[in-house]
């Protein structure tokens, strides 16, 4: 069994490409079914966030062409394979395991130690599990990743002051307006990121706050406890002139706020300054709006300076987080080695038993004069011989001092008995 990972993230691909390679919940379910059907994947989890899209899989044949998964990713999203050149990364086994654990720990995020990634990893695993696309390997792997994320947040400073994209965006708004106590804000969306934006705005004493969502019930549920008002989604074009700050986090394939809508809003505001932070992937606000006078439009890739400040403040915690990751990797590899050892012994037993039966069949004429009980006795004795031959290697595998030693024993057995070959001697 081989663990494979194909993906792209904020380090390898620009926002323009990332927003074309996202997976909605429905997309993830469909992609999972197709990967299992056409790319020889026995288990699959799709992880898609605003800064990454990753496919985790388990396949029995390590010799399968990894390019098939890359081709699938391009074809699924209707983009050319050339556009993905240099933007995809590929990991196998240990590297794939370490990558996922670093993701869950917040070490691979644009914002070091970001708050929401652990929940996103957990949700991706839950969806895949509910769809029946996980098995023993990815179940164990993602459960380990969630444990890593929890420990890093509880045992290191990375979890004491978590920063999210929403908090970084609101912090940027403070730089433009200063004290937010005399200003107003409109949040588009009612999901997790929108909730974080509302919380950050309230913490900074925003004077007026509105929430608008396609789902009015969700908007009301978010507005009530936060002392905010709701704006009907269909009223959005007319409401854009009100806020000084607009935070957009809506699930949509196309922009929900156009440059034309904002031009009208700015005219109605007499061109008073307006700050917009687009946290959507794909983007929620038409990029051309950035050309409007006195309108400040930022997206996820514009948070670089805040990201750098965040990283410098938390870098000292990275070694502690990496130590937790190393411990969890060892636990997972020990489990995987134990599972592989059991499979190897079963394969070896099947190989030896098949040879035993062929020998008995080849010499059946020599036993023809024996009665059924005697022939059955010979069958039991030879089966017992196979069991005894396997006792010592099984014991050595079981009691190996480390998982690495167990893997070495397994490789020796595979080589000596030709278990990597599908052909029986």
Draw up the topology in text.
Blueprint: E1 2-9, H1 15-18, H2 25-38, E2 43-49, E3 52-59, H3 67-77, H4 81-84, E4 89-92, H5 93-105, H6 117-130, H7 136-155, H8 165-177, E5 184-188, H9 192-203, E6 208-212, H10 216-223, E7 229-230, H11 236-239, E8 245-248, H12 259-268, E9 274-278, E10 295-299, H13 304-314, H14 318-362, H15 372-398, H16 403-417
Care to describe what's here?
It is a single chain. 53% of the residues lie in helices and 12% in strands. By secondary structure, the protein is of the alpha/beta class. Strands 7-6-5-8-9-10 form a six-stranded parallel sheet, with helices on one face. Helix 10 (216-223) links the parallel strand 6 and strand 7 (229-230). Helix 14 runs parallel beside helix 16 (403-417). The radius of gyration is 29 Å and the shape is elongated. The relative contact order is 0.09.
């Amino acid at each position: 069994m081989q663990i494979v990972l194909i993906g792209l993230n904020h380090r390898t691909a620009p926002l323009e490409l990332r927003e074309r390679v996202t997976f909605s919940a429905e997309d993830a379910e469909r992609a999972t079914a197709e990967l299992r059907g056409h790319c020889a994947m026995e288990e699959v989890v799709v992880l898609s966030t605003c800064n990454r899209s990753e496919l985790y899989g388990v396949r029995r044949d390590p010799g399968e062409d990894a390019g098939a998964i890359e081709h699938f990713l391009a074809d699924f999203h209707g983009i050319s394979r050339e556009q993905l050149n240099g933007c995809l990364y590929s990991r196998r086994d240990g590297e794939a395991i370490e990558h996922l654990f670093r993701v869950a720990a917040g070490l691979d995020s644009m914002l070091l130690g970001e708050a929401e990634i652990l929940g996103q990893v957990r949700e991706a695993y839950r969806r895949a599990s509910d769809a029946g696309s996980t098995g023993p390997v990815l179940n164990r792997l993602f459960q380990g990743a969630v444990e890593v994320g929890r420990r890093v947040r509880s045992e290191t400073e990375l979890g004491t002051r978590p920063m999210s994209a929403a908090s970084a965006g609101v912090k940027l708004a403070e730089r433009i307006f200063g004290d937010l106590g005399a200003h107003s804000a409109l949040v588009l969306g009612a999901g997790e990121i929108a909730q974080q934006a509302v919380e950050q705005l309230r913490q900074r004493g925003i004077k007026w706050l509105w929430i608008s969502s396609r789902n009015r019930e969700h908007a009301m549920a978010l507005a009530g406890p936060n002392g905010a008002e709701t704006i009907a989604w269909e009223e959005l074009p007319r409401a854009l002139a009100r806020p000084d700050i607009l935070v957009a986090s809506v699930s949509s394939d196309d922009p929900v706020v156009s440059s034309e809508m904002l031009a009208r809003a700015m005219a109605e505001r007499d061109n008073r300054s307006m700050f917009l932070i687009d946290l959507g992937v794909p983007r929620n606000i038409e990029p051309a709006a950035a050309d409007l006078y006195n309108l400040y439009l930022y997206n996820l890739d514009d948070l670089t300076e805040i990201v750098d400040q965040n990283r410098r403040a938390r870098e000292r915690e990275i070694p502690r987080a990496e130590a937790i990751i190393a411990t969890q990797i060892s636990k997972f590899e020990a489990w995987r080695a134990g599972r592989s050892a059991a499979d190897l012994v079963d394969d070896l037993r099947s190989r030896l038993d098949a040879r035993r039966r062929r020998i008995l069949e080849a010499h059946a004429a020599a036993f023809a004069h024996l009665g059924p009980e005697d022939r059955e006795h010979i069958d039991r004795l030879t089966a017992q011989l196979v069991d005894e031959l396997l006792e010592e290697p099984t014991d050595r595998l079981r009691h190996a001092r480390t998982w690495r030693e167990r893997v070495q024993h397994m490789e020796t057995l595979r080589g000596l008995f030709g278990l990597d070959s599908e052909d029986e001697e």
